[in-house]
Amino acid sequence: MRSLFVFGFSVIISMLLVMCTKDKTEKLIEIPEYCTTAVSFSNTIKPMFDMNCSTSGCHDAATNTAGYTLITYQDILEEAEASLEAMQHNPSRVAMPYLSPKLADSLIQLLECWIIQGKLNN
Hints:
single chain; mainly alpha; 4 helices; globular
């Protein structure tokens, strides 16, 4: 009798655990139509940051006045989402590149795609 009770209790606990995991809503990421091709960090993202962000007096190592650098993969990885918002001129961020025209939407979209694709070091 006791083993039947333990078995029944185990089944009920297992069912509750399964039900709880199924109740969680997954955050779906919408992949824009323009993100159909893999974006390369070394061929696309790094050069974009080198030309527009890690320039003298901005996010470079020598005269960094911005508070953080955007030189290495790790630097860019850690600041990718904030950089995207700044490049999109999101009102919650300082518009980047600072005191310069907004980057072309096609460049901003490449960064967005790279983020969506998992920010690979490729």
